[in-house]
């Protein structure tokens, strides 16, 4: 196991603190999707008889949301609405999307929201005020657990997450307007459970720590009262850092940037219950290619809840995106291996400035330096000579093909 300096670990902790969104943002997201769910269940609702369930998915559910690069950017709250009282034999994707859209548009009017509801490829976008700085994407969906289990078991694939699978709408599919069993599939609940399992004992330990803090203020608090967003594990922290590093590297060309689901999936596979943020980050970068497969024709990053889905499916049509991923990973390894051996936090901030953003790295330095005793802050910082090294393994990596992934 590579060793990292204490100063680097302290700086990373401060950096993650600056990347974290305020807990009020999580609370705001929770209030928003719950309010929409209540609207769908009101007596006058055209979908209340279909038992609508609204839940958050994506980075808000995984606890890996990061602050936008600027105040002009919005938080993207991804939600799903499952109508459990309907099935794929009852209506088409187009009809389901229209059904849900009617209620979302009525909600906008009732809540005096000025911006029109937008129809996106897979969802409806509900725009909140500029001051709120977020929008909500709601994906219409139906239960698909039984069909998913049959599909996976017929191919002798893991079906342990099948029960929470859903069928979703996508207006780019050729049968969007037809009543058919062939719908796009997803499983955000299953993915979140897989991700939680990958966090390992770290999640349990951190959750108990948060509970202890809550009980110090409220003796009646129980483990069920601990919101997932209050728990911060090394895996989540590493993903947050890597996402910001990605955002900065591809700020001029976001089209080819590695997508968050690929970063999160590969990081979760690579994480091995490392205890600190720094050790997790370095270990993840070292092993990040371990879950990438090559079948002789294409690169595959399987969805851990549905092995028939390839998160890297667009790489076949756009090989430049595969190259961009390899370029980004190489740069991330270089940037963090060179900084995690340093003993001067100011120097760490300076080295990472271009890769993470000057304002972010400067604030992290100020925060981490302010936590040191005054006597230590005024003392001469120890030299980095002889600092323990961080190096990535030189052994063979998978997949072996194509060139650039060796």
Automatic annotation (TrEMBL):
Disordered, as annotated region: 363-406
Pfam families registered for this protein in UniProt: DncV-like_NTFase
Coiled coil feature spans: none
Lineage: Bacteria, Pseudomonadati, Pseudomonadota, Alphaproteobacteria, Rhodospirillales
Organism superkingdom: Bacteria
GO biological process terms on file: defense response to virus; nucleotide metabolic process
Alphabetical keyword list: Antiviral defense, ATP-binding, Magnesium, Metal-binding, Nucleotide metabolism, Nucleotide-binding, Nucleotidyltransferase, Transferase
Organism: Thalassospira marina
Basic and acidic residues: compositionally biased ranges: 364-374
Reaction(s) catalysed (UniProt annotation): GTP + ATP = 3',3'-cGAMP + 2 diphosphate
Name recorded for this polypeptide: Cyclic GMP-AMP synthase
Listed GO MF terms: ATP binding; metal ion binding; nucleotidyltransferase activity
